[in-house]
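Model it.
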Amino acid sequence: MAKKKQSAQSGGTPATVALTAAGTAYTLHAYAHDPAAPSYGEEAAEALGVTPDRVFKTLVADVDGTLTVAVVPVAGSLDLKALASAVGGKRATMADPAAAERTTGYVRGGISPLGQRKKLRTVLDSSASSHPTICISAGRRGLEVELSPADLAALTSATLAPIGRT
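Modeled.
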């Protein structure tokens, strides 16, 4: 994987700018996003020719009143009880989309766990560690970043836990 040089002025997103600033190796993948696609993550997997278990979606949940980021494979869904348990909470629900967008600084379908406006507690599904690299949103629809799960966990201070369901 090669390091990419990005800045906000050169069209970089806050996620790619954060990766570059950290000196993290990553590969950027762009594809033509179809606004009618029923699943952003599955669309990305298909467009990139990557198995859906290697493409991860970023979801924002409310755990006992605190917004929390969950990063799970697009091939499955988020187990809200497991997420709550992973952060020592009692109850989790999906966050209001407007609150998620306002807090992260990204639009739905393009939320990245990196470069968020406000750093939120992050939980990465433990299945990520079974892959040398995974793909996550680079901060806008039609743009994915491929990086090692260890780098993602380090950059987001993520907890690894089994929070995905297939």
